[in-house]
DNA sequence: TTCGTGGATGGAACCGGTTCCATGGGACCC
DNA sequence: GGGTCCCATGGAACCGGTTCCATCCACGAA
């Protein structure tokens, strides 16, 4: 492992100049910079992260805190954040916050430069309090004063409901998400509003955890309403529904339309089925982008970004 | 943020002694150590990770490299590894290796102390070569000379096949996993062996990517064989099968038995359906445990651990 | 009493970068 | 031609720990 001193020696300059040349800061003669860069390349120089962190007083690590890894809604977010972090020269660590969220934050806070917080549930004050120690960006939820980025699924659910009503569906079911979910509150309101405007009957079921099993379980209740269209909170719930409907001989979408996401439609060859298309990677990427700006002081906390969510009718 | 110097000053000792007391190494008089610990507690001292890394020449970070986060087989492994890493005082970063696996390794290698490698596919030499720079533990795959831990699903698949044959199934289908998968080779061999011994007819389909959509797609081919039992490589494939069978009016398990995992059985209320129960968290925990021992020099590379996988008939 | 021994402690070097500050030299202007 | 200013560069301090080595002290043995 070669060090900065080695590079400096080979290039015939001091450590100080070598450091400046490699970081692109400060003023270095182009010719000198070229020599340093060449030397670094030849030696395969990789800066020692620990030394850099110590000198800069920054860890270069960002933590993304998610409730679980078992929900495929979160994983693309992580992937997107990871990609963007790498571009910006940060490392990402994934922390799963179980029941002991505050404890987990406290332990991490001194180790990282900032947080990406994915906390769909839990009280506002808890989220704010635990992530106050370091700059943080809230993902897919909004709290006043906190920087956040959300997929505007509420609007998408509204559009989708309107579309269903326009297709002649007079009885629609919305299967709600987990208890206390911020997004569920938004979506419920949007769906109710859209149904009311369109004059369609709406039944709201739930709360339901965002799992496959919950979708299976809620199926009888859905059928009981006599509805011709279902809008489930999450893809996992929708899959559970589809599976349970299949075993009951209910044909989709002939007997009942179940809204879902494009990948499911494609996989199953469903037709005449509406879908919303949340780009989780984009969500993660954007959130990380905001956090990097916060850390660089290019942005003040509190900015709220909404990403449009396409609806495919 | 208080530093070691602060702690030393408060305790009335030198930095050297304070360090020794806090790390439990070297010899420190019990009375002195007590004073240092008390001072540290009072000041809320948290050692600066970067400084410690720099001095020790160890980063304290371990990377787990997975092919994707979208497969729920990998995520519990990460969770288990994460838990064990925390116990041992390591941080875990999750790296997703896309097409550029060697590049990803090279960039990471200088930043971390070791690797957990989850590489179900890809050639042996590639895996060995890319992870040779740092101590590594291979997860759910075996390569001579590398430390590894695998869930012995091959044995479980064999047992399961035997059980199916004993239940009277004369025609069985095994839906194979992704092309080049090490586990798939093991499982195929085990299933073939068990079927032959039991005198049951076996059709091997595939290769199939471990996705939901692949399960849907393979369904017609499965039905065509006239088999009464299917053993899919992965849970995701099995779910696709179940879904597609439902839409075709094939009742499970009356018309066709589909082996799966316990959580699916429970969710769907399936009966008379065999399941194998891979404990992903345990896999991750064990792998991390092995890596920690490697890093501490308590173990030589090359140890291979197999975890038994229960079969529920 | 003195020497040897070993445990507790402190001083200081060191890990590998970053950055403040001082210095030197060249170009430009008067 | 001389003075000024600015830019490129180097020296050295510093980030906050760890650890080698020397020192000091107390105790037991000769």
TrEMBL record, chains A, B:
GO molecular function per UniProt: DNA binding
Domain HTH lacI-type as annotated: residue spans: 2-56
The keyword DNA-binding is annotated on this UniProt entry: yes
UniProt keywords, alphabetically: DNA-binding, Repressor, Transcription, Transcription regulation
Gene3D superfamilies reported in the protein's UniProt record: 3.40.50.2300, lambda repressor-like DNA-binding domains (1.10.260.40)
Protein name: LacI family DNA-binding transcriptional regulator
Highest taxon listed in the record's lineage: Bacteria
Record flagged with keyword Phosphoprotein: no
SMART domains: HTH_LACI (SM00354)
Pfam families: LacI, Peripla_BP_3
Phylogenetic placement of the source organism: Bacteria, Bacillati, Actinomycetota, Actinomycetes, Micrococcales
Species the sequence originates in: Promicromonospora umidemergens
């Amino acid at each position: 492992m070669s060090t900065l001193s080695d590079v400096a020696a080979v290039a015939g300059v001091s450590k100080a100049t070598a450091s400046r040349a490699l970081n692109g800061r400060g003023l270095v003669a182009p010719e000198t910079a070229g020599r340093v860069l060449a030397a670094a390349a030849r030696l395969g120089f990789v800066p020692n992260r620990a030394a850099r962190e110590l000198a800069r007083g920054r860890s270069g690590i960002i933590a993304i805190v998610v409730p679980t890894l078992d929900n495929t809604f979160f994983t693309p977010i992580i992937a997107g954040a990871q990609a963007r972090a790498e571009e910006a020269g940060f490392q990402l660590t994934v922390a799963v916050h179980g029941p002991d969220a505050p404890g987990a934050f406290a332990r991490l806070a001194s180790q990282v430069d900032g947080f990406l917080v994915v906390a769909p549930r839990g009280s506002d004050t808890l989220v704010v309090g635990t992530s106050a120690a370091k700059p943080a960006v809230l993902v897919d939820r909004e709290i006043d004063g906190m920087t956040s980025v959300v997929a505007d699924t509420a609007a998408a659910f509204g559009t989708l409901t309107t579309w269903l009503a326009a297709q002649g569906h007079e009885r629609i079911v919305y299967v709600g998400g987990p208890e206390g979910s911020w997004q569920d509150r938004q979506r419920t309101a949007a769906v109710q509003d859209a149904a009311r405007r369109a004059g369609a009957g709406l039944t709201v079921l739930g709360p339901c955890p965002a799992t496959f099993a919950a979708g299976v379980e809620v199926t009888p209740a859905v059928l009981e309403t006599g509805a011709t269209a279902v809008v489930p909170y999450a893809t996992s719930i929708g899959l559970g529904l589809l599976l349970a409907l299949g075993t009951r001989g209910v044909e989709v979408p002939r007997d009942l339309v179940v809204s879902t996401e494009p990948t499911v439609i494609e996989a199953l060859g469903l037709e005449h089925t509406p879908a919303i298309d949340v780009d989780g990677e984009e969500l993660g990427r954007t959130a990380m982008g905001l956090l990097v700006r916060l850390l660089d002081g290019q942005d003040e906390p509190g900015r709220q970004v909404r990403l449009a969510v396409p609806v495919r009718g």
